[in-house]
Amino acid sequence: MNAKEGIKILLVDDEPHILQFLEMGLTGEGYEVKTALDGLMAINVAKEFEPHIAILDVMMPGMDGFEVCKMIRKSGAQTSIIMLTAKDEVEDRVKGLTIGADDYVIKPFSFEELLARIRARLRNQFPNLFNEVTYGPFKLDDRRKEFTYNGRILELSPTEYELLKFLVMNHGIVMSKAIILDRVWGYDFLGEENIVEVYIRSLRDKLGDKQHQVIRTIRGSGYRVDFS
């Protein structure tokens, strides 16, 4: 089947113009979308709709996004939850992840970034929905934990695999060391940021990326995967 056919996304935000923009964009991408303007409506829609992905705004009057997240998790639904927050604070991210959120996006965000987050959540939580997926010169088979680059199978450690997968799925987006550590190693990782450099160097060696044209270093910002 089409990779997006039958994939259901619930959007929850108290700002109608944001809901309309995201609904149009995601529907145009081929997803089945339902919306809710508040937390109570979101809970009711989620019960009937059974979405694969729920995108929840944190700051809503009455029942906020954190409470909706807890209610969805309490219901036992297999929904993957992405939180939208206007606050770039560690406490908010930790709280969301602690109560059961799977990812978060900080406002303002680009639509392409949200799409990348959605794709990553679907690949991680619902791999049975997909066959082998192609990203430029990369082919990813998450069920077999196998990466192919330009027709060549890469011999990767589990951490190298997860790091390359994160970067490739978010291709074109600059990822800081802090975000990479958070997403790949986990927010409770207590080691040094330099571990990212070590793994990036190893990936470049295995890709034959001597000129750093595949995994680019964006000075002062982080790393970005580009497809030629």
TrEMBL record:
Q: Which residues form the OmpR/PhoB-type domain?
A: 130-227
| DNA-binding span(s) | 130-227
Keyword vocabulary terms for this entry: DNA-binding, Phosphoprotein, Transcription, Transcription regulation, Two-component regulatory system
This protein's species is Bacillus salipaludis
Q: Where is the signal peptide?
A: none
**Keyword Nucleotide-binding listed:** no
Q: Name one GO biological process term.
A: regulation of DNA-templated transcription
Record-linked Pfam families: Response_reg, Trans_reg_C
A GO-annotated cellular component: cytosol
Ranges for domain Response regulatory come to 8-122
**Which residues in this protein are found as 4-aspartylphosphate?**
D57
Q: Which domain of life is it from?
A: Bacteria
One Gene Ontology term of the molecular function aspect: transcription cis-regulatory region binding
Q: What is this protein called?
A: Response regulator transcription factor
